[in-house]
């Protein structure tokens, strides 16, 4: 596919798209009067500011005189602080009013997903009336004192730098005096006169502006009629630069409403205004807790779009069976900021499901790059029923809005302005319903909840040590946003080109991508988990991993030999560390060449792998995409074979492009998008598997990484290599440490496909292993990732450092990738780069025991950090954490089943289960495993007590059954070095097995059920009469998924056992949903937390023995129940 389009002829300012029989011509509606109306709205505000100048001058003048002798009034009194709160409230209210008026559809033409076209001029009139009423309210004497006006004036910068500190002191003194009078209704004559004057002047101004607008419209209409050209007169002739923005309107723009008009940086006032944009230094604002004037974030742009910045307008609209289609035309007075603006755009809106909406905007006349993988479902033939959303589009300036029908919440609204569509620069912004936004990966962020304080995220897969502010290995432009009422929405921009995403405190989001198209998918949830499931349903559900992949993995770069690999592994086995898989990094290779084995140091690998398999263990090795291209002919089959199949990436002259990675020599890169690539990769893996029967493949460096920029011969000069806008990548250009942008893949240019290299390789790797073992689940671990890659591989978070900050951020990483549909994810436990410490490694191993993917891995030259490398106490504490993991593997496996079946998460943030509790929205030092287990790790050094949040409900210590007395509260918990805090949520039933040193052995042990009752139970210390209630013991539910642990496509075949459990009305029962084809261990033990002591327990009509300990834990042992047969256990009180 071709990305760059041929330059179009300059527009002649005529309508480029006229009426057709199939659509409605909208080109003659909504002309210049739109901007007059908008200027009227903000002219009122501007004029109000001028009135305020007069009032404030009169107010503060007396205070410019020396203070009276003997005055003892304190500079800051409690009353002043109270006044600050009132001021802050009023300022915030006025800012919201300003924002709301700007967000109204200025042009009366809109499109509704339910009602088609309608006229919104009434809404515009209501907006005007709202503004006047709100200004009236500011003058009613209750809150609108001179001090509020003065501070508003400070915000508008009318006094900035003019009166100095004496003005500030005088204003603060007046606050103290007016604060008292404001509470008494402001009955003094001066206040009443101020209010009356404001009202009179506003009425006069409104009338004058209305008359001026009407007069201006008549003059324009008369001139057009005189020329005989009507509306077309405005569109003919040469394009001229638009008039500069109204300076008053620019000054009025609040900081958080500024959308950057000069994103490439280094703007000056001249260059900014040449684009028709506003230039103004960021305003100052009043602190919420004191009246000191403080500077705002330096991220606030000086150059920003005015309200009426010319962009595009809708010139054709046509309903379709499943949505809308339309045509957008670029405004004739739009400024050419970048080369090759696209004059006509197609707009396609699809109501794909009741919860999912698609909005696609692209070049109408030229084909542009569209992401080819993952393959998304085609839009349905007809519109879904029961839509959760309403869709509206405004003609001029073009924008669209997605609204939640049930609540009226606006979840996506592009009226923020600044919409642009050039060949190599596309920009669009949207308001967000709240500041609670998550996702947008892969980046290192200090918190799971993103800051909206002018935060930039760059999307461009990059080989770099993780650090804040840089793009990392994955590209996932998907976010989840919590709304004020606990509902959630999500948005995906299906685009693979280099991109910046900016969050600002409006709150709002801006997208800037340098290629492809705008292809948005909006998900309406309404719960956070619903949003993720809807996203994953679209991009591809994750594969069910082999059971052994859930065990503990051990690796490092730098073993150096097979002997050292064995020594480290055996010392951990001897220490009793549960261990399923041994790994080797690139040091196993011969001269770092893929699909080779070092003959000197690793010659015994085949026998070693055989020994691992005999122990029920597994083996995985690494490979890189770089294939040595300088070996003698016919001596290195991986290169010769790729040349023969013509499946290496080419340069701009159609020769094999060569980079350099670990061999230190030239290397070729397989083109995994080529039709021959799958056969090539399958053959090479199969040939290697004959020598080393590895159980999976670790695919690294697939961003793709390159130790030279572009190629060993450099890159040609091209706009692809040096685009007019460069996102915030880590380096001087797009080809930094990767291939040339002009490089050619079968599916297109590297410019478009760069961030997709990893998903193409992951797909080829999965296909290769299925070809080798058609009945076994493949295992692939990929560093680079893209949208929907969970259907092909697992992921680890790359070369994290051995420090506490990366331990902390790893929690957000695993939560994000579960949202992205790649649930089998983890960080290098104890860190990869740098030396760990015993305390750090212990705490990280405790946390990592609850990663979905748990692997200890570090770099060469660093201290040993395998569990057995430390003191006996540290090793035993690590072993204890891993034994807990192995005991919980039936629960983990059941969660992966659900993830593969319906797109649920394995680990999740607290707010996924408690969306109605806003206090959970920012908790990122804790997380949930499934719905039932809360993990509260130690994430700071020298810590033996932690503060953990417990949402409302019953919670029990996982280890002891002790109920935690916390109902939506933060609690202090002891955190000794040998323990990680784990709590089970009331209402949960969790399947367990006694852990062994391998998953192979653990799977043979009998099952247990751990039951924690939810609210409704009488306490364990309640009286006998209270505890005798037949329905007083609460309820719980859960399930167990079990199969052979390795067969492919068990979900499609139904060859698995699924048993669901419920405890209700004092009866624990099971339902066998699917009996499966495999033998399954029996259920031997049931433990119940939160139940009163029963008089009897009846199993199968017979009394059963049980124990009830001091912690209130009920245990029923030696049950021997067949889980393929439904059972009932009754409790009598």
UniProtKB/TrEMBL annotation:
Primary location group: membrane
Membrane-spanning intervals of the chain: 40-65
Record flagged with keyword Glycosyltransferase: no
UniProt KW Disulfide bond keyword: yes
Keywords, sorted A to Z: Disulfide bond, Glycoprotein, Glycosidase, Hydrolase, Membrane, Transmembrane, Transmembrane helix
Entries under Pfam families matching the protein: Gal_mutarotas_2, Glyco_hydro_31_2nd, Glyco_hydro_31_3rd, Trefoil
Subcellular location: Endomembrane system
The protein's name: Lysosomal alpha-glucosidase
Organism field: Hypsibius exemplaris
Source species taxonomy: Eukaryota, Metazoa, Ecdysozoa, Tardigrada, Eutardigrada
